[in-house]
Amino acid sequence: EEAVFLRKKITLLRAFALLIGSMVGSGIFISPKGVLKNSGSVGFSLVVWFVCGLLSMFGALCYAELGTRITKSGGHYIYILETLGPLPSFLFLWAEFFAIRPANSAVVSLAFGRYMLEPFFAPCAAPVPAVKLVSLLGYYMVLTLNSWSVTWSARLQTALSIVKLLALALIIVPGMMLLAQGHTENFQDAFDRQSLVLDKLPLAFYAGMFAYSGWFQTSFVREELVRPERNIPLAVIVSVITVIVGYMLTNVSYYTVLGREDVLVSPAVAVSFVQRAFKSLISVVPILVALSCFGTMNGGIFTFSRTLFVASREGQWPPLFSMIHIRRHTPLPAVMLMFPLVTAMVCIGDIYHLMNFFSFSRWLFIGLATLGLIVHRRRHPELRSPFKVPLFIPVSFTITCLFTVAMSFYSDPVNISIGCIMVLSGFPVYYLIIHRQLSSRCRSPFCKYISSGLNFLPFFSRLLDYLTHKLQLLLEVVQQEIKTY
């Protein structure tokens, strides 16, 4: 008898766990190789890690202000829609569904499968088919949990956030102990300018920003947060500072124990670290890392389903995906929608190519969202936000995002071009379906159902009823002919 809606179940602790659980995942355990490879040296890679953390803090502060100005859930999508209009928001939704989110989920699930199997096959590499099978099993488990209960998904995220911090501590402590004992040989000539290639730096930033990605997750569940005006800024600031400190210490530990060449040739940096530092925990740390990836998958599914839910409510996605399970209070159709695309990308993809593929689209639209904050301030100077950042922060973050996106065309033109084509392919879809829906030219019921793309279920239901009725008439005629014969 009560109204069916998404309940406010995300407390400050759960918001903090959601951010930590989304940021500390596969990134810190697989990105060091990508950052080092594209930055060229140990010193420059550490600079990239720090700058990426600083940029993430800038972006997180911008999103915290947007979250207090715009009271809807939906993250990037709703911020772009409310500030820049329906076309860029639909292009984001299109790219997010077909490129960004499935590729991101595939990267994290592949990292989960690799680390889960490493202890069983060491010192050999785990077979690729086995890695992909375990990756899919882990993803399906998280999918099932998010379909079952919001509360249990949040509780799992809180528990796994503790596991993530424990995994980082097991890497940081021995590395710091060795560094204190004077093992600094791997930091000799740390800033080797000859190995620095400027046109590869955007890819190094993509890898680093991938590791920090997740600072925006509370914006996706804004309507489910308890006291969002207070809890969003507080959770964002504390969690991002915690992750920056943890990531810098983790990378210093990696380089203290492993040399530059060891990091570059390692398929799983954390496993190589444990093999070199202390073999007694060789089977423990990879499992902790795998659980970290599991938590990142859980956070990703939890938040993206809310994007589809809000987009359906705003009229840019079929209404089926704005439906909520009447007893579970979970957005079940939106949760299940990513199942086929993630499965396909896990089966055919490679971690580092997938990372470059989706990073272009993600940072393009994040830059547009923070640009939207500047626009929103200009349009609504009378609006008093409970949390406001200096104008310098959104301006510098937006310029950095858009400049990095532009530079990436020189770094990896193939994958970036594919990502660009994926975004641009949303233009005809928008004008043929969404834009038509907003105009009143098309009056016929058939055109209304097909062109809007929103009421396709009643259309097919009526079509099915019509065909069933005709089939029954045909059967009656056949029966009558048989009786007559």
From TrEMBL:
<keyword id="KW-0812">Transmembrane</keyword>
<feature type="transmembrane region" description="Helical">
    <location>
        <begin position="42"/>
        <end position="64"/>
    </location>
</feature>
<protein>
    <submittedName>
        <fullName>XCT protein</fullName>
    </submittedName>
</protein>
<keyword id="KW-1133">Transmembrane helix</keyword>
<feature type="transmembrane region" description="Helical">
    <location>
        <begin position="12"/>
        <end position="30"/>
    </location>
</feature>
<feature type="transmembrane region" description="Helical">
    <location>
        <begin position="416"/>
        <end position="434"/>
    </location>
</feature>
<keyword id="KW-0472">Membrane</keyword>
<feature type="transmembrane region" description="Helical">
    <location>
        <begin position="162"/>
        <end position="183"/>
    </location>
</feature>
<dbReference type="Pfam" id="PF13520">
    <property type="entry name" value="AA_permease_2"/>
</dbReference>
<feature type="transmembrane region" description="Helical">
    <location>
        <begin position="120"/>
        <end position="142"/>
    </location>
</feature>
<dbReference type="GO" id="GO:0015179">
    <property type="term" value="F:L-amino acid transmembrane transporter activity"/>
</dbReference>
<feature type="transmembrane region" description="Helical">
    <location>
        <begin position="233"/>
        <end position="257"/>
    </location>
</feature>
<feature type="transmembrane region" description="Helical">
    <location>
        <begin position="203"/>
        <end position="221"/>
    </location>
</feature>
<feature type="transmembrane region" description="Helical">
    <location>
        <begin position="76"/>
        <end position="100"/>
    </location>
</feature>
<dbReference type="InterPro" id="IPR050598">
    <property type="entry name" value="AminoAcid_Transporter"/>
</dbReference>
<feature type="transmembrane region" description="Helical">
    <location>
        <begin position="360"/>
        <end position="377"/>
    </location>
</feature>
<dbReference type="InterPro" id="IPR002293">
    <property type="entry name" value="AA/rel_permease1"/>
</dbReference>
<feature type="transmembrane region" description="Helical">
    <location>
        <begin position="332"/>
        <end position="354"/>
    </location>
</feature>
<feature type="transmembrane region" description="Helical">
    <location>
        <begin position="389"/>
        <end position="410"/>
    </location>
</feature>
<feature type="transmembrane region" description="Helical">
    <location>
        <begin position="277"/>
        <end position="297"/>
    </location>
</feature>
<dbReference type="GO" id="GO:0016020">
    <property type="term" value="C:membrane"/>
</dbReference>
